[in-house]
Amino acid sequence: MILEMLTDPQVWITLVTLSAIEIVLGIDNLVFISIAVSKLPYAQREKARKFGIAVACITRIALLLTLAWLAGLTNDLFTVFGQGISVRDLVLILGGAFLLVKGTMEIKDLIIGESEEEDIHTKPKASFMGVIAQIAVIDIVFSLDSVIAAVGMANHTPVMVAAILLAVAVMLLASKPLGQFIDHNPTIKMLALAFIVLVGVYLVADGFELHIPKGYIYGAMGFSALVECLNLWAKRRAQARLQPE
């Protein structure tokens, strides 16, 4: 089975797509982690940041496995308009609705803009383990959208876990430059949120037994990502031409 997964191109496409979504949407988590660790003495902050991300990775995988297990329960609980609704259907419908609401609200915040009144350097100090616990809880809340997307898009739990591990590894190794890149290119985050809304529509439809081929979803995502790459390339070329020689 492992060999079949490794040789299946769709598995690799799913892994790359989920990892990209996890990484981009994980930037918000890094902001809240920075606020949490600022309560500690300066010498402990980097250690707390890395340890907190590692603990958050474990809690995220536990959340993923729980939702994946619930999505595997296919016995009907009740009937709506002649259609049986199972635990799996409820997970897909509620999860898809959550993605639609969360993605729409995040897109609205990006368009309108949010006030940033928090100063991470003026927070009082706290205990090391207290900060770690806070990071774990924050990560569960703010990674729920990407975890639900993973459950809806991937059929294999190892692929979902691998995407989370890959995203966390990138966050650990390149959190600062990655955050700066997203800040300088906000359209990347807008694209990821648009993907989340698209996945939300797919999950709700699948929950009501309206099956949409995943190839359509991957095709739309791939085309949009290609267009965004071309936009970034054109933007950099334009900036380079404007710079004095």
Task: Walk me through what this model shows.
With 245 residues, this protein is mainly alpha-helical. 79% of the residues lie in helices and 4% in strands. The chain has helices at 2-6, 9-37, 42-71, 87-112, 128-142, 144-153, 157-184, 186-207, 214-242, and strands at 76-80, 83-86. It has a two-stranded antiparallel sheet. Helix 2 (9-37) packs across helix 5, helix 2 packs across helix 8 and helix 3 packs parallel to helix 5. It is globular. The model is unreliable at 115-124 (pLDDT under 50).
Helix-strand layout with pairing:
Layout: H1 2-6, H2 9-37, H3 42-71, E1 76-80, E2 83-86, H4 87-112, H5 128-142, H6 144-153, H7 157-184, H8 186-207, H9 214-242
Antiparallel strand pairs: 1-2
Helix pairs in contact: 2-5, 2-6, 2-7, 2-8, 3-5, 3-6, 3-7, 4-6, 4-8, 6-8, 7-8, 8-9
- Give unreliable regions as ranges: 115-124
Secondary-structure-derived class:
mainly alpha
Mean pLDDT: 76
Count of DSSP helices? 9
What is the CA–CA distance across the termini?
Answer: 57 Å
How is the largest sheet built, in terms of strand order? 1-2
What's the helical proportion of residues?
A: over 70%
What does the main sheet amount to?
2 strands, antiparallel
| Amount of beta strand | under 5%
Report the count of strand segments.
2
Q: Using the CA coordinates, give the radius of gyration.
A: 20 Å
H/E element sequence: HHHEEHHHHHH
Q: What form results from the Cα inertia axes?
A: globular
